[in-house]
Structures are given as structure tokens and as C-alpha cells.
Please model this.
Amino acid sequence: MLLTRKQFREAVFKRDRYRCVICGKEDNLDAHHIIERRIWGDLGGYYLDNGATLCPEHHIKAEQTVLSCEEIRKAAGITNTLIPDHLYSDTRLDKWGNIILADGRRLKGELFFDESVQKILKEGGILSQFCNYVKYPRTFHLPFSSKVTKDDRVANSFSYVDFKNSIAKWVNPIFKSKLKEEDTFRWRYRTIIPNKLKSK
Ligand SMILES: [Zn+2]
Model:
């Protein structure tokens, strides 16, 4: 159930008994978003299962993604892994929506190039773990599509403007900054792999 910001804070603190779920401290607590609220769009991700009570020290570790989403969920007793619909539920994510591969490397997500995210990942010493593979967000049939059957996923709350913005947000910065010099791309599973990288 989507909560308001106030309800979210209260419900998260109450479930965690007003203590940091990692160390048990009781002062200056934050109701931390396990998956960043900006990734949830206008909804803000104010779900109880997307929140955990953290002290300042562990809040910073969580924002730096040194403390993983899985560790935080486990500490808070959350068994339901909530992620936004446009991301893949079978992949590990860090707080900022970057995909974590089995070998620990990460793929750049939609907020990777955000200034504040860059800063916090740098502080956490995480930037060197990123590689240049790109995985697109899940694609939806849009409500105004004529090809939708009853088995298809339809993005109900998604307007055409949201769609355009989300694609632009994902693809443009990655293309502009990292793939500009690449002429050819190999397409596989909606994943773009620059040839230069692939041959390594
Ligand atoms: Zn703590």
C-alpha cells in the first residue's frame, strides 16, 4: 500500500521499534528508502516494505550502497522485495537502481549520472565497480497501444510524456557520455554491448 511521507516515516519507525535495524541506536533516526524514491516516479516509493529505520552512520553506508538493499531488508525482517515495475525483478539492484551482477560488477542505472548519486558512490568507493554494459528498463505496452492482449503488461499509470521522459532519462546520458565514439552496437536481450568491450 502506498503511504504518504508522514505515514511512511511513522510506519517504518514503528515496525523497527524506533531503533536502527543494523545497530540498534535510537537517536537521530532516518526512515530510509531502500530503493530511491526518485526511481518510483511521482509515487515516491513510500511503501512500508521499501523503508527501514537507520541511524546516521548506517544511513550514510546505505546511501553509499556499501550496505546493500538485501542486508537492510534482512535486518528489518522484510521478506517482500519491492522494486519499481520498470525494473527487472530477477536482478539485484543497489539503492540507486544500478544492477549488481553475480560477479559484483554493476551496470549503470537511470540515476547513475545524477550529481548527488555520483558523489555518494564516490564516497563509498563504489565507482570502480561499474562497467559499460547497458540494460534497458523493461518495456511496457502503453495504455494507448492497439496491440495489447489481456496477458500483456500495461503501464496503467504511465502517460506518453512519462514514457518519453523515462526513455530520455535512461538512454541519452549513457549514449552521450560513454558510447559516443562507438559506431556499431550488438543487440542482444535489449542489452547494448559495444563491440570494443565485448571482445575484451
Ligand atoms: Zn546504526
